[in-house]
Design brief:
Layout (H helix, E strand, L loop, with lengths): L21 E8 L7 H12 L5 E5 L7 H4 L8 E3 L2 E3 L1 E2 L4 E5 L15 H14 L5 E7 L6 H9 L5 E6 L4 H16 L3 E12 L6 E2 L6 H8 L4 E7 L1 H8 L10 H20 L1
Parallel strand pairs: 1-7, 1-8, 2-6, 2-7, 8-9, 9-11
Antiparallel strand pairs: 3-4, 5-6, 9-10
Helix pairs in contact: 1-8, 3-4, 5-6
The structure holds adenosine-5'-diphosphate (ADP) and magnesium ion.
């Protein structure tokens, strides 16, 4: 007797069972580099970690910054029975990054898409995340294939947070990221406007170097939540560079990150 023909697989591929203990997966993206994705990812992660079990995946294979921002750039990763053990930081966030696998900070990673996909897959599936409330993915700049990899590997990801700067081009950048989200079939959880107004460290006055309002305007235009505005503050750079996220200090920006994170949690909880 002839065997029946194979049935086509309908719908997205099933989520890997190795990642099944993770409740919420959120990608932090932008239309371009240097707008503060890593800063936002790290600070949201440490803020979430005050209440939840949090993992951070540095999905920027070519430019891994998260270990440094969390003060763990010298750490080595090890493998245990359940898989690769993510590096614990003192802020309650465990992190995995290409940075841990490079001989030194200056090593350039020149990998084609297929290899980067493999790295993202390992970060998601071969790391012993166990039970986690949140996994935050700090994505590389732009609309590259890493986003596609995550959407394929975690088809039920909660969604994407878009980071923009406040200039008029924010609309353009946001549009790119919005279109990408649509293609990935993932919801946009909201837009964050970063580098919104410079707070002078001497006089405390605010100067809107990059203007202000572009992010909020983009959120209105695309009908997605506006999550908040983070000013350009010199302490953010200093704290990132010395491995103490601003969100764990008493800087005003910590309160801003706390409000933004509350909003994200509210949106994510409501959606599920
Ligand atoms: N709100 C802010 N105020 C001051 N500096 C910031 C702010 N956000 C980001 N930066 C700085 O800008 C640079 C780029 O930020 P980063 O988070 O690495 O961007 P991306 O990950 O999008 O490339 C870093 O040096 C970071 O410390
Ligand atoms: Mg980055």
């Amino acid at each position: 007797m002839n065997k029946p023909p194979p049935q086509p697989i309908i719908g997205p591929p099933p989520k890997s069972t190795k990642y099944k203990g993770v409740k919420h997966t959120i990608m932090v993206m932008s239309g371009k580099g240097g707008v503060g994705k890593s800063t936002v990812s790290v600070n949201i992660s440490v803020t979430l970690a005050k209440k939840f079990k949090v993992g951070l995946i540095d999905a920027d294979i070519n430019g891994p910054d998260d270990p440094k921002m969390l003060g763990v750039s010298d750490a080595q990763i090890e493998a245990g029975d359940a898989g690769i053990i993510p590096v614990s930081s003192k802020y309650g966030v465990d992190v995995i990054s290409m940075g841990f696998l490079l001989p030194n900070e200056d090593t350039a990673v020149i990998w084609r898409g297929a290899l980067r996909h493999k790295a993202i897959q390992q970060f998601l599936e071969d790391v012993a995340w166990g039970e986690r409330d949140y996994i935050i993915l700090d994505m590389p700049p732009g609309t590259g294939d890493e986003g596609l990899s995550v959407a394929q590997l975690v088809p039920d990801a909660d969604g994407i947070i878009i980071v923009v700067t406040p200039q008029d081009v924010a609309l353009l950048d946001a549009r790119k990221a919005m279109n990408f989200a649509t293609q990935l079939k993932l919801p946009v959880l909201g837009i964050i406007e970063n580098m919104s107004g410079f707070v002078c460290p001497h006089c405390g006055e605010t100067a809107n170097i990059f203007k202000t309002g572009g992010g909020e305007e983009a959120a209105k235009k695309y009908n997605v939540p506006f999550l908040g505005r983070i000013p350009l503050v010199s302490e953010v750079v200093v704290s990132s560079d010395n491995g103490t996220p601003i969100a764990v200090t008493d800087n005003v920006v910590a309160k801003i990150f706390s409000d933004i994170t509350d909003r994200i949690v509210e949106i994510v909880e409501k959606r599920k």
